[in-house]
Design a protein that fits this description.
The complex is a heterodimer of chains A (307) and B (308). Chain A is α+β, with helices and mostly antiparallel strands. Chain A folds into 4 domains: 80 residues, Arc Repressor Mutant, subunit A, CATH 1.10.10; 40 residues, no CATH class; 85 residues, SH3 type barrels, CATH 2.30.30; 72 residues, Alpha-Beta Plaits (2-Layer Sandwich). In chain A, 39% of the residues lie in helices and 23% in strands. Chain A contains 11 helices and 13 strands. In chain A, the strands form 3 sheets. A 5-stranded antiparallel β-sheet of chain A has the order 8-7-6-5-9. Chain A has a 4-stranded antiparallel β-sheet with strand order 11-12-10-13. In chain A, a hairpin with a 2-residue loop joins β6 and β7. Chain A is elongated and about 95 Å long. The mean pLDDT of chain A is 88. With 308 residues, chain B is α+β, with helices and mostly antiparallel strands. In chain B, 37% of the residues lie in helices and 30% in strands. Chain B has 9 helices and 13 strands. A 5-stranded antiparallel β-sheet of chain B has the order 8-7-6-5-9, with helices on one face. A 4-stranded antiparallel β-sheet of chain B has the order 11-12-10-13. Chain B has a 3-stranded antiparallel β-sheet with strand order 1-3-2. In chain B, α1 packs across α3, α2 crosses α3 and α8 packs across α9. Chain B is elongated and about 95 Å long. Chain B starts with a helix and ends with a helix. Classes of the chains: A alpha+beta (307), B alpha+beta (308). The interface between A and B is large, with 114 and 105 residues. β4 of chain A pairs parallel with β6 of chain B, so a sheet runs across the interface.
């Protein structure tokens, strides 16, 4: 690792950040410490430095600075894109941010939380919180995957990984969590698909150069998630033993039938899920209608008991 | 593997605003915070002396004092504020704030402050293709429960057990709260059972703070049984949801063979039945007999209600 290169990267960042106007390459070579050698050497150095800093998330803006000479470009790092604004958060807000990051202590996302915490503590110094009372988020998720996926989404790289026993090449469009699990939404063979990250069995790698695809402008992650869920609701009538199936009783109305049974009207979206919740209660809950649902449940039970 | 020059440059730039807000911090402490060696921090700081703004006169260089293992920043130049949060940092903050929101659901003032902060920090978050669809179940008793943990007090709770399908009264000594698969769980010592028990917070119907706990409890796991199951590949969800009790897992034809460490036989009986026929008990035989008995009783009911 070269001290010289590290120094040059810091000096370049500071110069682009401190400048009030776009700096040309020549200005950079003449003023920023560390650029030496022939013009061609310095050009190569600068291109590499710029790519590396951008690769780490630093937004170096480039802009034509002379309308008469289109190839004359200038470079700048906008303060707002690099640093958190002064007084962005009140002391109390810093406290909440600290608590939010501390929830991940010891979890798979501990590293991301720790780096966030360092930035929070750079805003307002040490912060006292009553963290002792906070819950701890347990996550079995591999946090390195998250970093790779974000990088691929940002730079439009294709991702490669093994999923359900097959090698997949996916254009990553978005990421979401549901019930504590993480899902990647991406395009594979012209189809938009969901991939549950816990099921990615072999290492996930970036398998293309940056800019390998363009995400369609019409892609809307929220809409995709919504569309992939059924909005249809179906009705069912159940017989429920008195004082049993308390969780179902919390959700659905019942009517008294006799000393032993109540009748319950339910609505559901997913047949499999609904049968599971009925079977959970064993002989205390019986499906009266619809008949096809009842038959399916009976067939499942017979299949299990007959091996 | 050694850090690249760019990663080292970023860390060095992150050190400046951190030291500025924590003057007099030791290099040992910095090493702990930044997860590198003390030598690495010292090397990074030595580099800072040579960095600054074009001109590079003493007035334009970053200036810090670095003596006897403690550091303070005199002039940070433009590095007086931390870098913006990265996308993955924003994700952990967003999810963390959602948890804070749920545990403060009964405190409107705090809730309003969290919501305001949430809106402020994520006003431009739409640019990042990330959505959280976690629907966390909240509890009105979070404050009492956390007080009981902090003050080591007993709690009298009324709990709706999903596995027993019954409401029971218990006296517990709460130990800690975790968030798993979108639910809040309370780990406790159950004084009636004299065993460790875990309760879902949203299923606690009533909660009352009681006296201080004077005696010490050695937390023992409740009696655990190894249960071997065949799980159809379509029911992989079941294994993923219960990954914390999976002892062994292997791929077999059309599915998986798993060994679970189970402390609640009522729960596993119900779980196997509810996933019929996609989960089968391999051992112990007593469990498969129990599941079969439940199916027989259930089929008798259908013979009565739907004889055809």
């Amino acid at each position: 690792m070269s001290n010289q290169k590290t120094e040059r990267l810091i000096n370049l960042t500071l110069a682009l950040l401190a400048s009030k106007r776009y700096l040309t390459k020549i200005e950079i070579f003449n003023t920023v410490a560390g650029y030496q050698g022939s013009l061609e050497t310095m050009e190569r150095m600068f291109e590499r430095d710029k790519d590396e800093l951008r690769g780490l998330g630093i937004d170096i803006e480039v802009k034509g600075i002379d309308p008469l000479f289109e190839d004359e470009q200038g470079y700048l790092i906008q303060e707002d894109s690099f640093q958190i604004k002064p007084d962005a958060f009140s002391k109390e807000e810093v406290l909440y941010l600290t608590m939010a990051a501390n929830l991940w202590h010891g979890s798979a996302l501990h590293n991301q939380a720790k780096s966030a915490l360092l930035k929070i503590q750079s805003l307002n110094g040490p912060t006292e919180t009553d963290d002792v009372n906070l819950p701890v988020i347990k996550s079995t998720f591999d946090s390195d995957q998250l970093t790779v996926i974000f990088e691929a989404m940002r730079s439009h790289n294709i991702l490669e990984f093994t999923y359900k026993g097959e090698l997949r090449r996916v254009k990553p469009y978005g990421l979401y969590t549901r019930d504590g699990f993480w899902y990647l939404v991406g395009e594979e063979n012209d189809l938009l698909k969901n991939f549950k990250l816990i099921r990615i069995t072999k290492s996930l790698v970036i398998a293309s150069k940056s800019g390998a695809f363009a995400k369609p402008e019409s892609f809307d992650l929220n809409k995709f998630i919504q569309d992939s869920q059924s909005s249809e609701r179906y009705q069912a009538i159940l017989m429920v033993k008195k004082n049993q199936a308390l969780d179902l009783r919390k959700k659905f109305p019942v009517k008294d039938i006799d000393d032993e049974w109540d009748q319950m009207s339910c609505s559901y979206s997913y047949e499999e899920e609904f049968i599971q919740s009925v079977l959970w209660h064993g002989s205390n809950v019986v499906i009266l209608s619809p008949e096809n649902l009842q038959k399916k449940l009976i067939a499942k039970c017979r299949q299990l008991i007959n091996g | 593997m050694a850090d690249t020059a760019a990663i080292r440059a970023l860390r060095t730039m992150d050190l400046i605003p951190f030291i500025l807000e924590n003057p007099g911090i030791s290099t040992h402490e910095l090493a702990l915070r930044f997860s590198v060696t003390q030598k690495q921090i010292e090397d990074d700081l030595s580099l800072v002396f040579l960095c600054g703004l074009p001109g590079y006169t003493p007035y334009e260089l970053i200036d810090l004092t670095f003596e006897d293992g403690v550091v303070s920043v005199i002039d940070p130049q433009v590095l007086d504020r931390p870098r913006k949060f990265s996308n993955s940092e924003l994700v952990v903050i967003k999810l963390g704030l959602q948890v804070l929101r749920e545990i403060n659901v009964d405190q409107p003032i705090k809730l309003a402050k969290i919501d305001k902060l949430f809106a402020k920090i994520f006003s431009d978050f739409d640019q990042i293709p990330f959505v959280s669809k976690n629907v966390m179940s909240s509890s009105p008793y979070y404050a009492d429960i956390s007080k009981a943990i902090y003050q080591r007090r007993r709690l009298k709770i009324q709990y709706q057990s999903i596995s027993k399908d019954a409401v029971t009264e218990r006296v517990i000594v709460p130990q800690g709260i975790t968030v798993l698969n979108g639910n809040l769980y309370l780990h406790s010592f159950d004084l009636s059972a004299r065993e460790e028990r875990t309760f879902r917070l949203d299923l606690i119907n009533k909660c009352e703070l009681s006296e201080k706990v004077l005696e010490e409890f050695s937390l023992q796991n409740s009696k655990e049984v190894l249960v071997e199951l065949w799980v159809d590949q379509e029911m992989l969800n079941f294994i993923e949801r219960n990954s914390s009790i999976v002892e062994e897992q292997s791929k077999v034809d059309n599915g998986f063979k798993v060994i679970l460490k189970v402390s609640n036989l009522e729960w596993i009986s119900r779980a196997v039945l509810s996933h019929a026929p996609y989960i089968k008990v391999i051992s112990p035989t007593s469990l498969s007999n129990e599941v079969n008995e439940r199916i027989k009783r259930l089929l008798e009911n259908y013979a009565f209600f739907a004889p055809n």
